[in-house]
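Let us work through a complete example step by step.
Step 1: write down the sequence.
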Amino acid sequence: MRGDNIHGQGRIQAAPCAFNVGNQTSTIETLTGTNFKRWKEDIEIQLGLMDLDIALHENEPPKPTVRSSIEEKARYEKWGRANRLSLMIMKRSISHTLIGAISKTENAKKFFDDIAEKYKSSEKADAGELMNMLT
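Step 2: predict the structure and record it as tokens.
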């Protein structure tokens, strides 16, 4: 076969790849209120593997105009897709009893940061309560 691929052209081509978001996100532990650190790690890993984590680390780029370059338009589209999918994945991985207590936003970074802030405050209160019990 002399290195020919399935098309007989002698060069390697990328094979089509089916990506099942359900399979990827099934490894994210549902946020129940007591497992924030684990949930946060799961979200960061999965969004990183799916190349969606730009929505968590970058602010929304400026909306393209007719004068915007192809690269600027592509960056905006990539961020928008990452933002939408990240929000869906995060919301899907949060217990229904908790989702109502989280701010309504269409920005994945803000949503993620709001959850982190809520649990940061909660962890401080828990640590303070534990210290009071120990003293």
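Step 3: interpret the result. The helical segments are 21-25, 36-49, 54-57, 70-92, 96-99, 108-134.
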